[in-house]
Amino acid sequence: MRVLITGGAGFIGSHLADAYLQRGDDVSVIDDLSTGTIENIRHLKANPRFSYTIDSVHNQPVTAELVDQSDVVVHLAAAVGVKLIVESPVRTIETNVRGTEVVLALANKKKKKVLIASTSEVYGLSADVPFREDGNLVMGATTKGRWSYACSKAIDEFLALAYWREKKLPTTIVRLFNTVGPRQTGRYGMVIPTFVRQALAGRPITVYGDGKQTRCFGYVGDVVWALIKLMDHPDSVGQVFNIGSTEEISIVALAEKVKELTDSKSEIVFMPYDEAYEEGFEDMPRRVPDISKINQLVGFKPEMKLDGILQSVINFHSGQPSSFED
């Protein structure tokens, strides 16, 4: 199979490229390197079944050629990370919505199957935990810049489903919950690589808010397996699927666990959201997926536990080989 991965030099995209190539597929990647890095795919350059293009999906002639040469498209290119979203809301909205518009329109010409990567952020301020795919989305006020990302990804979902219903373009949507693993950067506010780098350097481990907010962290290898299975399964078309772990932990407990696993002397400090992001910043107290739907369709069940995930990230950031990667 010929697979096009947009955002393929990013954290998840590069792991997905690894997995498809290991399976024997041909992989093309397009990435503008705004948040991805060539280092993530450098090891793939010598593979004759791999090719990459440094450009934006907004460049329609370039993207059109890549889509035409592929059998399926995995659209991962997006603005990522709370920090980037708060600081660059215009870029966030334009990148997410316009990029998805371009990919869907081009794929529709030849009816290429498209997977659209969405996010757990779309559940917004909903307190109906665990989150189900058919549950209500509760957006915050438009005056809170943080929700621009959630809203833009919800529009992506609406558009992808509209292409399926109206034009019969085979689309599948996944809502990713805090995917973690080697190659992920903490540059844009991702919590685990940030904690790990702080702990390894002996700097204070900075917890935003009171640390009581809880999250579930899924291993990138498990997530990539799920993406491939959904792309292979014909019954995933026109559907929305949560992908993530159900192992819930508070952020302060996460900081303590990172400190323990790194044998760090770092102090755990707390920073108000207003200082970390923007005045009036709102956060979800819990973010837990219901993964029964994807389990029923493709048998997805997270394999990697949190300790193993953390150790793989610690190994990566300390320059040690990781038996967990790939």
What is the number of E strands? 14
End-to-end gap: 20 Å
| Fraction of residues in H or I helices | 25-40%
Spatial shape: globular
Q: Strand portion, in percent?
A: 15-25%
* Biggest sheet: strand arrangement: 3-2-1-4-5-6-11
Rg, alpha carbons: 19 Å
Low-pLDDT segments, ≥5 res: none
Task: Determine the CATH topology of the domain at 2-180 and 218-245 and 288-302.
Answer: Rossmann fold
- Assign the CATH architecture of the domain at 2-180 and 218-245 and 288-302: 3-Layer(aba) Sandwich
CATH homology group of the domain at 2-180 and 218-245 and 288-302: NAD(P)-binding Rossmann-like Domain
Order of helices and strands: EHEEHEHHEHEEHEEEHEEHEHEHH
How do the helices and strands line up, and which of them pair or pack?
Layout lengths: L1 E5 L4 H13 L2 E6 L18 E5 L5 H9 L3 E4 L6 H6 L1 H22 L2 E7 L27 H21 L3 E6 L2 E2 L10 H11 L3 E4 L5 E3 L1 E2 H13 L7 E4 L4 E3 H11 L6 E4 L1 H4 L9 E2 L4 H7 L7 H12 L9
Helix pairs in contact: 1-7, 2-4, 4-5, 6-8, 6-11
Short characterization:
With 326 residues, the chain is α/β, with parallel strands linked by helices.
Question: Could you explain how this protein is built, in words?
Answer:
By secondary structure, this protein is an alpha/beta fold. The chain has a domain of 222 residues: Rossmann fold, CATH 3.40.50.720. Helices cover 40% and strands 17% of the residues. The protein contains eleven helices and 14 strands. Helix 5 links the parallel strand 5 and strand 6. Helix 1 packs across helix 7, helix 4 packs parallel to helix 5 and helix 6 crosses helix 11. The radius of gyration is 19 Å and the shape is globular.
